[in-house]
Specification:
Mean pLDDT: 93
Shape: elongated
Oligomer: single chain
Low-confidence stretches: none
Number of domains: 1
Strand content: under 5%
Helix content: over 70%
Structural class: mainly alpha
Number of helices: 3
Number of strands: 0
Radius of gyration: 15 Å
Distance between the termini: 60 Å
């Protein structure tokens, strides 16, 4: 099996595992990790749509993760 296939199957497994995440922050990290793997797959296959779509997913997942870490102002 080619390296790109290994990466693709690993990305699929990581994405599927994201459904097991109970914490929303953990879900975002797992989704970002899967997207990064899909980006690697896309690079090896020369598939620009796969790269672009997953770059967007990874960025949104990570931004959402970092925003969820920020303390929220307390309402009075």
């Amino acid at each position: 099996m080619a390296l790109s296939e290994w990466i693709g199957w690993t990305a699929t497994a990581v994405f599927a595992a994201s459904y097991l995440a109970r914490d929303p922050r953990q879900l975002r990290l797992v989704q970002a990790a899967a997207a990064v793997l899909w980006i690697g797959y896309g690079v090896l296959k020369g598939a620009a749509p796969v790269i672009g779509a997953n770059a967007a997913v990874a960025a949104i997942a990570l931004i959402s993760f970092w925003r969820s870490r920020a303390p929220r102002p307390q309402s009075k």
